[in-house]
Amino acid sequence: MLIEDCEATNKNLYKFYAAVMIIIFILALPLNASVLHLFIFKLKFWKSNTNNVFLFNLVLADILLLFCLPIKAHNYIKGERRSPNDAVCKAMLFMLFLNRGASIAFLTVTSIDRYFNVVHPGRKNLLKALKKSPHISIIIWILLLPLTIPTMLKNFDCCNTDDTDVVDSLREAVFFSQIIIPFFILVYCTVRIVNRLRKKTVGDKTKLKRATFLVMTVMVVFSFCFLPCTLARMVLLIARVQEWPEMYQDKAAVAFDGLMVLSYMDCLLDPMVYCFCSTKFKGLYLSNYFPFLYKDSQVPIESSTGQTRGVWS
């Protein structure tokens, strides 16, 4: 069997992958939908000059990515690594690359903004000026579109079309750059933020501890969801270039598919990490969906002027 064939060699294992994706979909869809509802109808994110706009787009990217999971799960249950239909396969790849790229991009932009707010609070920067306009979010989505072109031109697993070395290299460059570059940016921002917060002696210690916990958790979640599949992809490429025995290439492909499933956990973890670490958002969420758990002692959701504040605090 060729490594790029659609048929899975270990059908039971792929059924397990499908079960994991179904569980992620069932848990993450209502969670992301409820968060999206709050951003639109309660927080009115478009009126805010804070990270609400970035967080809204992060949740939007996650919820769009979730709609791909039932189709992938269906293929796995049938014992197919990818859809044998060329159009469906390419459409899935387009959605997966675009929305996962958007999720990583908005996470990275949010972390960079957090870095400037904590490490350089008084310094003017381009991002601070741009985030006052929703156009930066539109620009990010548009810039991500060209990155999906290589997936539409070259066979990726079982999307069979004519291939060239140039397109193959572009595709792999897109895959790795979407994860590796943001990872180093997040590492830098996290280290600088943690060091800055540790040196800060004035201010609410509880807020400082929460901010430190937040940036550390962002780093852990990103590493847990995306680094394993990146390493697996690297091993798979080495196996193909060095022409390992077909059995080992197949095992590398199976491991890569499994770790890609793990990366979809990002859709489930994002709302809990990037939104629920805010006491304001937590209070808003509980008061709307779980009022019996809401406590009056929590941080107020709105300011004294009635305007909704940013949830990234």
TrEMBL record:
GO MF annotation terms: G protein-coupled receptor activity
Q: Which residues cross the membrane?
A: 16-41, 53-73, 93-112, 133-153, 173-191, 212-239
- What are the record's GO terms for cellular component? membrane
**What PROSITE patterns has UniProt attached to this entry?**
G_PROTEIN_RECEP_F1_1, G_PROTEIN_RECEP_F1_2
| Annotated G-protein coupled receptors family 1 profile domain residues | 31-274
**Which domain of life does the UniProt lineage start with?**
Eukaryota
Membrane topology qualifier: Multi-pass membrane protein
Broad class of where this protein is predominantly found: membrane
Q: Which UniProt keywords apply?
A: G-protein coupled receptor, Membrane, Receptor, Transducer, Transmembrane, Transmembrane helix
Localization annotation: Membrane
Q: Which family does it belong to?
A: Belongs to the G-protein coupled receptor 1 family.
Name of the molecule in the record: G-protein coupled receptors family 1 profile domain-containing protein
